[in-house]
Amino acid sequence: MLRLASYNLRKCVGLDRRRDPMRSLDVINSLNADIIALQESDRRLGRRPAALPRKLIAQNSDFVPLDLDETGVSLGWHGNALLLRKGLTPNNIQRLGLPGLEPRGAVIFTVAEMRIVAVHLGLIRRYRLLQMQAITTALAKLPKCPTIIIGDFNEWSRSRGMSPLQDDFTVHAPGLSFHSGRPVAALDRIAISHDIQLKKAGVLQSSLAKQASDHLPIWAELNLPKRNFQLS
């Protein structure tokens, strides 16, 4: 079994308007996940410095960030960052630029024989559909293996807006994750290829999570083919 999570950090600014990276990391640690996809992990202005510092992660968690930074100051790429539990070795890391009015990107990598795609899709559905199509086109060029797409999909509808994924993936919305103060939308989701079994999934609704960001984190426990997941 593998436990994944996704969390839009909102640049570590809580509902109290305070930027508190340690509070965000406390929420991350409480997820007890093996791999966590983060969105809005970097600030928007200037060189996009990390909102969640690497030193803080190293000193206060059992996670190692995926090496995505191209600037020397960011934690992620287009705000997408990945934290892996120590002992997991990532391979074949790719940065995929996505179409749209605003700069967006996806991160693709493998752990053993499993592929993970971390996303933060656009605000407009027409561009989200193009972005999902770009992801599936990129995946089709790679060797076939169990695949997970996880992140902030920014889709308000529970029944529409996922057509580019429907042939190869089952999309799960673990629960209402936005707005954390009064959740009304399942913006954060996980899509799994048909050779992966979802055991259970949910939304972290702790009092700390309700204050640390405008999104609540989602989590999912997955059963993978035994040969496709191993600690290095």
Which characteristics define this entry?
232 residues, alpha+beta, 4 helices, six-stranded mixed sheet, Deoxyribonuclease I, Chain A, disordered C terminus
The termini sit apart by 16 Å
CATH class wording:
Alpha Beta
At the third CATH level, what is the topology name?
A: Deoxyribonuclease I, Chain A
Which CATH architecture is right? 4-Layer Sandwich
* Share of helix, binned: 10-25%
Task: State which percent range the strand residues make up.
Answer: 25-35%
User: Total domains, how many?
Assistant: 1
Biggest sheet: strand arrangement = 3-4-2-1-12-11
User: What is the arithmetic mean of pLDDT?
Assistant: 95
Shape: globular
**Low-pLDDT residue spans:** 228-232
Radius of gyration: 16 Å
The count of strands amounts to: 12
Order of helices and strands: EHEHEEEEEHEEEEHE
CATH superfamily: Endonuclease/exonuclease/phosphatase
Account of the protein in words:
- It is a single chain.
- The chain has helices at residues 21-30, 54-60, 125-140, 209-212; strands at 2-8, 35-39, 63-65, 81-85, 90-98, 104-111, 114-120, 147-152, 169-172, 188-193, 197-203, 218-223.
- With 232 residues, the chain is α+β, with helices and mostly antiparallel strands.
- The chain has a single domain, classed as Deoxyribonuclease I, Chain A (4-Layer Sandwich), CATH 3.60.10.
- A hairpin with a 2-residue loop joins strand 6 and strand 7 (114-120).
- The longest helix has 16 residues, at 125-140.
- The chain is globular, with a radius of gyration of 16 Å.
